[in-house]
Amino acid sequence: MEVKDSSDSSSATTALAGSKDGLANDEGNLSDAEGLAKEAAFLFQNRRFEECVDVLNHLLEKKKGDAKVLHNIAVAEYLREGFTDPRNLLDALNKLKEQSEKLAHSCGEQIESENSSGSDMVPGSKSNSASIHQSSAINSSRVVYAQDFDTSVTLLNIAIILYHIHEYSQSLSVLEKLYQNIEPIEEQIALRVCLLLLDVALVCEDVSKAAGVIQYLEKSFGITHAVGQVDSGCSTQQQSNQGMKIAITSSVTAPDVSTTDSSGNGNSSDNALGRTLTDETLEYETLYSTLDTVSEKLERPISNDNLKLSPDQEASSIDLKLNLHLYKVRLMLLARNLKAAKREIKLAMNIARFGDSSTALLLKSQLEYARGNHRKAIKLLMTTSNNRSDQGILCMFNNNMGCIYQQLGKHHISTLFFSKALKCSTSLRSEKPLKLSSLSQEKSLFILYNCGLQYLHCGKPVVAAQCFDKSKPIFYSRPIIWLRFAECCLSALEKGLLGKSDFSSSEGDVVKVHVVGSGKWRHLVIDDLSLTNRYHKCLGEDAVVIPDGKLRLSVPFARRCLLNALYLLDYAENLQSSASLSSKEETNQSASASAKSLSQKNTVTSDSKAFNATSASMPSTNGELKETKGGTLSSMTLQSSISLHEEMRRKENNMIRQAVLANLAYLELSLGNPVRALSAAKEILQLPDCSKMYTFLGHVYAAEALCYLDRVGEALEHLSIYVSETNDVQLPYSDEDMEKWRIDKSGDAYEFAGTQNAKSSEVQGIIFQKPEVARGALYVNLAALSAIQGNAEQADMFVNKALSVLPDNPRAVLGGIYVDLLLRRTQNAVVKLRQCRHVRFFPAHLTSSS
Amino acid sequence: MQNLSVEGLGPQWIRPAPPMLPVLDGELIWLNPDSNHELLWDYGMCADTSRGAVVRDLIAKALKGPLAPAQQEQFVLELAKDVKLVYHCGLTPSKLPDLVEHNPLIAVEVLSKLMNSPEISEYFIVLVNMEMSLYSMEVVNRLTTTVNLPTEFVHMYITNCIASCENIKDKYMKNRRVRLVCVFLQSFIRNKIINVRDLFIEVQAFCIEFSRIREVAGLFRLLKTLE
């Protein structure tokens, strides 16, 4: 093998040299340009951008309008000027891309015709080196065409800039285009495409895409595990393909087809040799992904390997390995596949011993955070923040601390950490010299979302909305942010920040009684709370205008947000159902478990990639299951992560939908649109596996809307679900139902029980009413319905029950008074008024308002 | 409701406010360090592309007639030097039949390198639909030993092989083809390229139809042992 290898490379170099000579003779100009290009590349690598741009401009004079030269000029100039305006560069690159694509298109036809004529020109000439050189000179022009219009680097750079300026969805679409046709792209660039795509897909929470890329990387870069240095361009490529080369030379010199079954006998046929070689690498893969404590075994295959790696390459291939593990951990954390994440992080930590393990530690901390082991998470986080001078790391540290304390229910500490993180993040922007990476490190938008959530739950809706508004560029396509906006509005409404005093519930907490007249003419005039149930001025006058933003918190705005959220939820659902449908078909067709994870957009690519996936996970010719075990195992965990994530997404979206619809029905009732309120409420009731709490809300809202529509009978139907035959009203939901809604976590969250209380005490307005309170509301409403239907006795019965549950609720009291008045028990009514703590008596200087 | 009200007071209704959705798992954004994505230099600028030209030239020749061993070796060497070269060698699916007929070894070489290409299924479609010959069988057989072919493709190819036997009129040619297909199938079964159960009926029908040929009897015995 060794000998063959060296002869290969030597003959290759001579061939190369020969062809270069021929080229130089024909086109001296070109080799001149080549020299300049090499010089420019060298200067670029050494970050001498000033000189680099000079050389490039010189080059441009020789090759006017050459897209690649222009591309490199744009990049070098941008780097020279210190990343001032990424959008400018983006525009320039986009223009270049379009230009190249146009040229490629028009030349495509030309090449076709040239091709046919070119092949006519060399009729059956045998191995005549002169003719080869000659024809290569002829062909060179058109080869230059084909590779000149290759826009992959330009596209990748566009995607990189988009990533750095946080335009993730756009970046994703550019990268997808590259990824769909990744095979012809040069190895180093392809690797970069994949890594960036992974990052972007993870930010966009597209788990199945990320899993597809990981599988692809494992397959095409993992097995030959000699991936060259990322930094040093294309020079390392030759070595990195040695593994492939050996296998191929052997298969060609294999004696005969019919001897394929000779692989068993130790005939040392080249074919068998090639296969055992790949077996070895595969086995190495298996070792890698199955064993937890591989550390010492891990080094053996590398040293035993036929592929001689330079220390540098070895290091970078380990780097890639480590990165892949870390990406997998991130993916599994996103998918809440915590067990698998734990396994994966162990593997990563084993490799990370060789180098920087801070990322691995951060992920480990995130894992503990996700599992609810908050103390452990904090401890781990502390160890990662040794480098406290680095603003980027400090920013992450503070933000993550904020997350942990939020989960612990320590909202003030959490707020503190988040605002610290924000400060660090903004200071990154002013850092000099500015780097492109500091743009992407600037995570303000993410931290702002966290802040918003925190403020909302602390009862500061206006600041919260301000934060959400700023984080919109990243989150606008997620339904949850729109729900949060609406919650801000509702919270502001509840606090009386919106509109006049007539809606705020703080006012609604008291019964206002005006004392009119005196002596025996004295009357008590009670303000009817029902009037405050309506939100009158809905034309936007009563909005809270957020400082420095165009955002106005108002009830109509809340409604628009909720409709946005509903639209996005529907969209996501359609997408998911169609995706799962097509993936089912695919799995049926190719019977491959891993096919599901691959992109379904382009049928051709997905087909072929599905084939690859099958080939990667199917036992090979000699039927040894062992060697592929590692591959299938990893693809299985990825697969299960994808389905876990889908399941979680479905559940979350269901929760969000319930909340959105309930908010919508409530708002519509407030706005005086009973028809719309009714349809929203009915939608809640039709949801599959809707929680009992929201079912209750749905019934109550529907009943109220029906009352407004004068359909009292139907309204009663909605409420009488909860009434038993003996006129008892059952609890609409139990404590367990509320627990279930709150915690849907895996069992190992042992700290959770302690934090529960802290949470409910410090947070306002999050939790559901207690089941008993909900039942009280049912009593009051049933009393109202009975009264409307003229059944005063029944109303009286309900009202008494209501008062026993909610003695202090002004509405219940008023309901009682109302029924008393119906039954002409004025004295009782007055007693009730006196007993109620929430009554305020006003002197009678105002005229009767009734 | 209004007309029932007693002296301006209406029936009372409690409208419970919807609760705020609790913070969902993973809703708070946890930050992790980014990988460093730097802008790239395009090394393809004014690059030497003559090496690709050699391969393109050889492919053009290979479509016309058999290459000399030295040329074959050169081709393989060139391809091995640069994995991505195969995508720029000028072969298209429509040209594949010519390559298979003249240079099956080169075809195997190229196809096995194109396995990851998005276009590979098109190549397979061409390979299945081209006229059955010793060379195309050789290509498929060799491919099965170097790469994992998609099952549907292998099945379709076998079905076509069997059908091609029935369509030959000349008796001598027919016998030759049947024997060839037999060896081909036996090799597939022995090497576990196909699962016989998937094609059992077709293969059995083939065996019964040509049972007078010695190789077919052998294949039939092999089938029986697997049953």
Automatic annotation (TrEMBL), chain A:
Protein name from the UniProt record? CCR4-NOT transcription complex subunit 10
Locations of Low complexity compositional bias? 258-271
Q: What does the entry list under GO cellular component?
A: CCR4-NOT complex
Ranges of compositional bias, category Polar residues: 113-130, 609-623
What the entry lists under InterPro entries is as follows:
CNOT10, TPR_rpt
GO BP: any one term: negative regulation of translation
Question: Region annotation Disordered: residue ranges?
Answer: 1-26, 104-130, 255-275, 609-630
